[in-house]
């Protein structure tokens, strides 16, 4: 048997995709290191997401114990659609059905808690390098060199750009930028262009809030329903759902406390230049002012859940920023550099699958890299195989999110009424169930065997 072709991997970005990949590679005996620009782990970074059965199965496939996943996931059962005045339009047991069908942990989780779970064993082996912003990459026949903002240079056999929706690594591999790669004044190197790192979606802003005392009663019955994903569409999209362990930041021992996250989109055209929005957006005073102004100028009904959600949002846990997106890419790799997660296929937040897709990527990429042997052109073959497996699936996910966005941002009152009736039928008539299941099928891991693992 030929020796493995890849020994050392530099992963740029310590988000969900980068950390999942590093976990998967280390499990396969490959020496992976993560370079993350954030100065340290933050338990308050971001809000929440829905861990789907495919994401759960993939986490187990890379060695995350099922009980660790269950600890951070708050189970969801229903999807509940209400009108602007709080009237129930439709309810479906879609998530409950999926729980029964796939028998995998499924529900809301704080993103920071999944980061924590993924990062823990890597940090113990000093594989996460915080405050390590990569500012340039260069490759040659033997490997890749990444230059950090500090001036330090890091050498690896290959480099994976898991640097998110504003990926700079994406530009370093793009065929259109090959000229830059070749003609750079730095020999063989590509220095990032700050102006390129802007990928804003020009139709919507978004508010994300986290409520930490979600075990206390709510005035709004559906907002307080712990196992429902609540949706309302009168002025942009409002959704809310319960989140996992929700470590209680108010108590000294960080004991369990169920949390709740909510999101409200705002139809607002504009040419935004966002970068690192999840960090930049955490200016609490600005976000609070923006939310207050938005509620004041929008004809929300007195019983709309956003009013209570805004009141109950924990201090410092409100974010506001324009939604970012980037076109789904055809070219995912160049030489020894390859993309993963949002860097390759960021989706709009309308399928609840974007984060799960980055975990799926990690499973597939680690598999092909571990199987690559030193004969022939192993790195190219591995990256090509990974792209072949992941391209169509992620493209369908991005397209679905765009279609959902188009439907949800209709402005005309007539269209709104038509949309609410249509969505009501979709939610209660089994179509939602079908659509959810269709997204899960095609998961690179056998969900049944992950269940047994
Ligand atoms: C702080 C944060 C909070 C988020 N919160 C939520 C949320 O609550 N809900 C939700 O649905 N999605 C959230 N997202 C987005 C979500 O995590 C991604 O859409 C999805 O998980 C795909 O993950 P990814 O690893 O491809 O990208 P990301 O999770 O965006 O991770 C990319 C990472 O790369 C790092 N990075 C970027 N450039 C460089 C560089 N040059 N050098 C070193 N590091 C670099 C970033 O700091 C980031 O940690 C958040 C993203 C971030 C960064």
From TrEMBL:
The keyword Translocase does not apply. InterPro entries: FAD-bd (IPR002938), FAD-dep_Monooxygenase_BioMet (IPR050493), FAD/NAD-bd_sf (IPR036188). Residues 8-175, 318-400 form the FAD-binding domain. Keywords: Monooxygenase, Oxidoreductase. The keyword ATP-binding does not apply. Coiled coil: none annotated. PANTHER family: MONOOXYGENASE, PUTATIVE (AFU_ORTHOLOGUE AFUA_6G14510)-RELATED. This is FAD-binding domain-containing protein. The lineage of its organism: Eukaryota, Haptista, Haptophyta, Pavlovophyceae, Pavlovales.
């Amino acid at each position: 048997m030929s020796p493995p072709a890849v020994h050392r991997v530099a992963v740029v970005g310590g988000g969900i995709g980068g950390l999942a990949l590093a976990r998967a590679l280390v499990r396969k005996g490959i020496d992976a290191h993560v370079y993350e620009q954030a100065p340290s782990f933050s338990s308050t970074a971001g809000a929440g997401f829905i861990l789907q059965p495919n994401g759960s199965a993939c986490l187990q496939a890379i060695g995350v114990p099922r009980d660790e996943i269950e600890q951070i996931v708050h189970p969801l059962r229903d999807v509940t659609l209400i009108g602007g005045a709080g009237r129930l339009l439709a309810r479906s047991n879609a998530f409950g059905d999926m729980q029964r069908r796939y028998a995998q942990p499924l529900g809301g989780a704080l993103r920071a808690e999944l980061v924590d779970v993924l990062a823990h064993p890597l940090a113990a082996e000093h594989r996460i390098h915080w405050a390590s912003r990569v500012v340039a990459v260069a490759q040659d026949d033997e490997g890749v060199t990444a230059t950090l903002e500090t001036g330090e240079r890091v050498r690896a056999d290959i480099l994976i750009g898991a640097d998110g929706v504003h990926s700079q690594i994406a530009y370093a591999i793009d065929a259109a930028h090959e000229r830059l790669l070749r003609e750079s004044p730095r020999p063989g190197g590509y220095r990032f262009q700050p102006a390129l790192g802007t990928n804003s979606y020009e139709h919507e802003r978004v508010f994300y809030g986290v409520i930490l005392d979600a075990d206390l009663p709510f005035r709004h019955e559906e907002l307080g329903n712990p196992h429902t994903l609540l949706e309302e569409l009168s002025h942009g999209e409002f959704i809310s759902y319960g989140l996992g362990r929700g470590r209680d930041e108010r108590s000294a021992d960080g004991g369990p406390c169920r949390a709740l996250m909510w999101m409200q989109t705002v139809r607002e055209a504009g040419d935004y230049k966002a970068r690192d929005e999840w960090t930049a957006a955490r200016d609490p005073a600005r976000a609070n002012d923006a939310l207050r102004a938005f509620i004041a100028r929008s004809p929300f009904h007195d019983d709309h859940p956003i009013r209570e959600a805004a009141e109950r949002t924990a201090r410092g846990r409100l974010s506001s920023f324009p939604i970012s997106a980037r076109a789904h890419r055809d070219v995912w790799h160049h030489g020894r550099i390859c993309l993963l997660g949002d860097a390759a296929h960021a989706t709009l937040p309308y399928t609840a699958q974007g984060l799960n897709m980055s975990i799926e990527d990690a499973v597939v990429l680690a598999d092909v890299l571990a199987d690559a042997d030193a004969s022939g052109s192993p790195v190219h073959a591995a990256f090509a195989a990974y792209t072949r497996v992941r391209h169509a699936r992620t493209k369908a996910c991005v397209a679905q999110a765009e279609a959902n966005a188009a439907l949800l941002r209709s402005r005309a009152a007539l269209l709104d009424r038509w949309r609410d009736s249509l969505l009501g039928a979709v939610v209660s008539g089994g179509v939602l169930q079908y659509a959810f299941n269709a997204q899960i099928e095609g998961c690179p891991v056998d969900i049944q065997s992950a269940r047994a693992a």
